[in-house]
From TrEMBL:
Organism field: Dichotomopilus funicola
Region of interest (Disordered), residue spans: 147-167, 544-563, 612-830
Protein name in UniProt: Ribonuclease H-like domain-containing protein
Span of domain HRDC: 452-532
Pfam families named among the record's database cross-references: DNA_pol_A_exo1, HRDC, PMC2NT
Recorded GO MF terms: 3'-5'-RNA exonuclease activity; nucleotide binding; single-stranded RNA binding
Length: 830
């Protein structure tokens, strides 16, 4: 920006130009351009010309902005590229705006311009050496010749079968080498070789010094000593003789996996108490490093590593080395409960050394190695034996405070043995199910994207195409195409080669000659995936119990792309409770308990017209048996309809019992020879008549007059049935006589039959919501009777009214304040 110009006039000029452009755009948006293009050919031509011009201007702006912001420029060749490359466009513009804000703040003096950082004064021996040469190349993606092409012993072909251990001899063996080459079938159904030192590692006993407290041995100054570079086999043999004399050695590895499909073990660092070695593992005769098994497999020498899970795998795969007697300081940190468990944390805690981890992902194939990278590699093992002494002493102290549980040192050693028993296997990628350590299953199951049939088929095909290409060229799959690029191709489904090219990202230049092949793969997958399963349908085929390794994908029938039903999304097992059944009655494990007489609740209804015969002679049956055996009694167990009542209290049946007892007199009942109670006819008749009178005098029962006469008579018949049940102890003949002598029997029978045959009239039924009070039974007009409003004819208590407290002396709402007025409030005052 020219300092001679003032900021305010320039800002006004830019603002006016932007306003004019915005108004023009809004004017065009109000016109039906599609209609105008169809009607007028000249308009269509002008629109196409202006579109090309604006597109070129936008591409030029992005090109200029990308140089200023150091962002990758998205190339806009046609209008569709704007949508496809929208994310890249937004990144460039956002970065441009941020830098513009910074420049304006610095120009106005709001923020002081940052000066270049000054060089550090002095030297700190406890810090990693800074880079003096200023590496101009990318430490991770150095363009160098592949060293694996010069190896004397080529890596095994993954397609030729299971990976076989690269050992020709077995030092310190308890089981011969020939007997160690045994195959088995792993959990994925693939044949694999067992660990050659499996028996030796499982049965070994660590030296006694591991369980004892010792005085930590101080490391030599790292800046006053030099590491020995080993790149000849003679140097390896000389180093081996010195390693055999040590009781503990520290080991660390540097690996490269970007320009190789399987990866390359590029460097090995070994340290004793007083010396460091750095071994070049990219030499053509690297397979001869197997001689180090004389130390690595010696159980008397403790091998100290930090986080050696992958180190064990790399040693087996590339050098044929196996570690017996491992002590992993990572698990020591975990057992001691440190805040962090990284090697950098241990270096800072015990040595006060700041490790520069920017070289951790460097390209360790570079030869010769820069001094900074050598210094970093050496520091990982130079202090490790001292750290081993410190954490071992803390474990011994923790073991002395142990309350009888597992010894902390034993726990660290058991975990270290588990790491040593890890085996290398060939990388597998199943094209259909996605299983394997190089498959897409574990990657896609974590992705939130929901692909339809076409998208899911494209994802699988592109993933398989990338993996096959990486195997053929011995490159990492991410070297050709990132995982993000595969996701974008499957999501967008590009319809032309240019759109596909734009989705490949920064690696597009690598696939320049293979774009046509990749485009054909995408189109073929789209055609095959029209009727294929969606991502959701595919994952629902694998239950959490069997997993993808035990089930095969079933071809989807035509029309399987329809949305899944809710039942299809239910899991067969609980993720919280596992295989435990939620309800034993649902999984069929519970057995029904046999029912006894206590569980039976009989419900009866009587047909008075059918009671014509006497019960058979014999002992007095129980009420339940008598009712079942009586030919005129019908047991009803099905559900019957019911009517909601008004909730009034019923008088106790004891009043009817007292009334009947008073009329029957105090004469005790007689008994016959069999011990049954014999009631005279008069007593039965009097009892029934007294119960009938009690029924008529009960104000709880509605009278038979008025609108609800049918319900009242039915209730009276039901009450009569209750009375009859209480008398089932008498003989059937006496009961029949008593019923025959009753003048009301025929009337009750007719009412009962009428109640059974006539359906319930809902239209004329009394209201349940506004039920009458106690005093309203005899007043159909709802006047309330003599007792006045809400009172029965006997002056009973008024029925509960839940809305009574809404008025009267009930608590009222807060009254309005004096300054509140209805109508317009002060908000609208001017």
């Amino acid at each position: 920006m020219d300092s001679t110009h003032e900021l305010k006039p320039l800002r006004s000029l830019v603002h006016s130009a932007l306003v004019a452009v915005t108004r023009s755009v809004n004017t065009l948006a109000n016109e039906d351009l599609r209609f105008q293009r169809t009607v007028h050919t000249s308009v269509a031509t002008r629109l196409d010309q202006n579109t090309d011009r604006i597109l070129k201007l936008a591409d030029g702006v992005l090109k200029s902005a990308s140089r200023f912001t150091a962002q990758r420029r998205p190339k806009l060749d046609d209008v569709d590229d704007v949508e496809i490359q929208w994310k890249g466009v937004v990144d460039v513009i956002d970065t441009l705006f941020e830098k513009s804000d910074t420049c304006l703040d610095e120009y106005t003096g709001l923020v002081k311009k940052k000066d270049a950082p000054a060089a550090e004064s002095g030297s700190d021996l406890k810090r990693a050496k800074p880079t003096n040469t200023g590496l101009a190349w990318s430490l991770r993606r150095a363009n160098i010749l592949k060293p694996q092409s010069n190896f004397e012993k080529k890596p095994q072909d993954p397609e030729s079968g299971p990976w076989k251990p690269q050992v020709t001899a077995k030092p310190h063996a308890q089981v011969p080498l020939a007997a160690s080459f045994v195959t088995f079938v792993n959990g994925g159904g693939h044949s694999q070789y067992k660990h050659p030192y499996e028996h030796e590692i499982a049965s070994m006993r660590y030296p006694a010094e591991v369980y004892q407290r010792c005085e930590p041995t101080k490391y030599p100054p790292i800046d006053h000593t030099q590491a020995v570079w080993v790149d000849t086999f003679e140097d390896v043999l000389e180093m081996l003789e010195e390693l055999k004399k040590a009781k503990e050695i520290a080991i660390d590895l540097e690996h490269h996996d970007y320009r190789s499909y399987n990866g390359l073990l590029s460097l090995m660092q070994i340290s004793t108490r007083d010396k460091d070695w750095i071994i070049d593992t990219l030499v053509p005769w690297r397979h001869k490093l197997e001689v180090l098994n004389e130390v690595f497999a010696d159980p008397k020498i403790v091998k100290v590593l930090h986080g050696g899970f992958m180190d064990i795998i790399w040693l087996q795969r590339d050098l044929g080395l196996y570690v017996v007697g491992l002590f992993d300081t990572f698990y020591a940190s975990d057992t001691l409960g440190y805040a962090r468990k990284s090697l950098a944390f241990l270096l800072k805690k015990f040595v006060d050394f700041d490790a520069d981890k920017k070289y951790q992902l460097a390209d360790w194939r570079i030869r010769p190695l820069p001094q900074e990278m050598l210094y970093y590699a050496r520091s990982d093992t130079h202090f490790l034996l001292y750290i081993y002494d410190m954490v071992r002493n803390e474990l011994v102290q923790l073991a002395s405070q142990n309350d009888g549980t597992m010894n902390p040192i034993d726990r660290v050693l058991e975990k270290s043995k588990e790491v040593s028993l890890q085996r290398y296997e060939h990388p597998i990628c199943d094209a259909e199910t996605g299983v394997g350590n190089r498959g897409w299953f574990n990657t896609l199951v974590k992705s939130p994207a929901l692909y339809n049939g076409e998208q899911f088929a494209v994802y699988k095909s592109v993933y398989k195409w990338r993996d096959d290409l990486a195997r053929k060229e011995d490159e990492s799959p991410t070297f050709f195409m990132s995982q993000q690029a595969i996701n974008e191709i499957a999501r967008i489904l590009p319809t032309d080669r240019m759109a596909l090219w734009n989705l490949l990202g920064p690696n597009a230049h690598i696939l320049r000659s293979r774009v046509d092949q990749l485009f054909e793969v995408v189109q073929a997958a789209r055609r095959n995936g029209v009727n294929g399963p969606t991502k959701l349908q595919f994952f629902t085929q694998f239950s959490s119990e069997t997993g993808p390794t035990q089930q095969q994908q079933k071809p989807a029938a035509e029309g399987d792309n329809k949305p899944l039903e809710i039942e299809e999304l239910k899991s067969s097992r609980s993720q919280l409770w596992g295989d435990m059944a939620i309800n034993s009655a649902l999984d069929g494990t519970s057995k029904p308990r046999p029912m006894d007489e206590k569980d039976l609740i009989p419900l009866y209804s009587f047909d008075f017209g059918a009671v014509r015969e006497e019960l058979p002679d014999g002992p007095t049956p129980s009420p339940h048996d008598a009712v079942e055996k009586a030919p005129g009694v019908r047991a009803v167990f099905e559900d019957e309809g019911f009517t909601l009542r008004t909730g009034k209290k019923r008088k106790a049946s004891s009043e009817s019992t007292k009334s009947s007892s008073a009329k029957a007199g105090s004469t005790p009942p007689e008994t016959d020879e069999s011990g049954r109670t014999v009631l005279p006819d008069a007593s039965i008749s009097d009892s029934e008549s007294s119960n009938t009178e009690a029924l008529e005098g009960d104000t709880d029962l509605p009278s038979s007059s008025g609108k609800n006469a049918g319900q009242a008579e039915a209730k009276r018949a039901k009450h009569e049935v209750e009375v009859l049940r209480n008398k089932m102890g008498a003989t059937a003949s006496q009961q029949l006589k008593a019923q025959a002598g009753s003048e009301d029997h025929s009337q009750l029978q007719a009412q009962a039959q009428a109640h059974d045959e006539v359906p319930f009239d809902y239209a004329n039924a009394s209201s349940v919501l506004r039920a009458p009070s106690k005093g309203d039974h005899n007043n159909n007009d709802g006047s309330g009777g003599k007792g006045g409003k809400g009172k029965g004819k006997r002056g009973g208590k008024a029925a509960f009214d839940p809305y009574a407290k809404k008025s009267g002396d009930a608590p009222q709402g807060a009254r309005k304040l004096n300054y509140e007025r209805a109508g317009r409030t002060a908000t609208f005052k001017k």
